Amino acid sequence: MLQPLRKDWGLNRSAALPIPIGKTITWASAVKSAVCFIPLLLGSMAYGAPAHHCSSAATEQAKKLLVFHFGPDDRMEVSKSMRKLAPMQNPANKKQLFDVLEVWGYIAKGQYRMRLIYARLPGECVLMGQEIMESADL
Q1: How many other β-carbons are positioned within 10 Å of the β-carbon of residue 103?
Q2: What is the pLDDT of residue 43?
Q3: How far apart are CA 18 and CA 7, in angstroms?
Q4: Three-state secondary structure call for residue 55
Q5: CA 137 from chain center: how many Å?
Q6: Sign of CA dihedral 50, 56, 57, 58
Q7: Phi-psi category of residue 108: left, alpha or beta, with phi > 0 → left and psi -120 to 50 → alpha
Q8: 8 Rama sector, left if φ>0, alpha if ψ -120 to 50, beta otherwise
Q9: What does the pLDDT read at residue 24?
Q10: pLDDT in tens, 64-77
Q11: Which residues contact 67 (CB under 8 A, 6 or more apart)?
């Protein structure tokens, strides 16, 4: 049977893990914690997932959206990174879903969040909607 560690920071590898004074943890509970941590780790690897097939179209459209709202400006930039958000339902047909891609744009000190909404069609990038919101703490 495994013994908990003493309250000092002594290390007894066959008994338990070293942890702060007054608390102990057994190897069994450490394994349970590791098993719970693995799904979180895998979920955080989503950034390594392949890019959405409309990523380049969304970046181009984000630039056009900034120009439409603010006019041409040499200080205008669109971030290369893009986030795929949760899909949204088609308002005309609740069984259909649209992909939502979020990209950030910058003009001088202004920051703008743009969400571009694309129909889920294989091999095609059909823009269904777009929104732009200035990031500001009022």
Answers
A1: 22
A2: 52
A3: 9
A4: helix
A5: 22
A6: positive
A7: left
A8: beta
A9: 64
A10: 999 999 999 999 99
A11: 73, 76
Burial of residue 44 (number of CB atoms within 10 Å: 0-12, 13-18, 19+): exposed
Parallel/antiparallel/unpaired status of strands 93-107 and 110-119 = antiparallel
pLDDT tens per residue across span 89-125: 999 999 999 999 999 999 988 999 999 999 999 889 9
| Closest to 107 in 3D by CA, of 79, 84, 82, 130 | 79
Tracing tokens 């669109």 back to the chain, one arrives at 78
Other beta carbons less than 10 A from residue 62's beta carbon: 25
The Cα–Cα gap between 58 and 97 comes to 17
Q: Beta strands 110-119 and 127-134: pairing type?
A: antiparallel
Domains and CATH numbers, the chain: 1-48 (no CATH), 50-134 (3.10.450)
Between 66 and 23, residue with greater pLDDT: 66
One-letter amino acid for residue 129 of the chain:
G
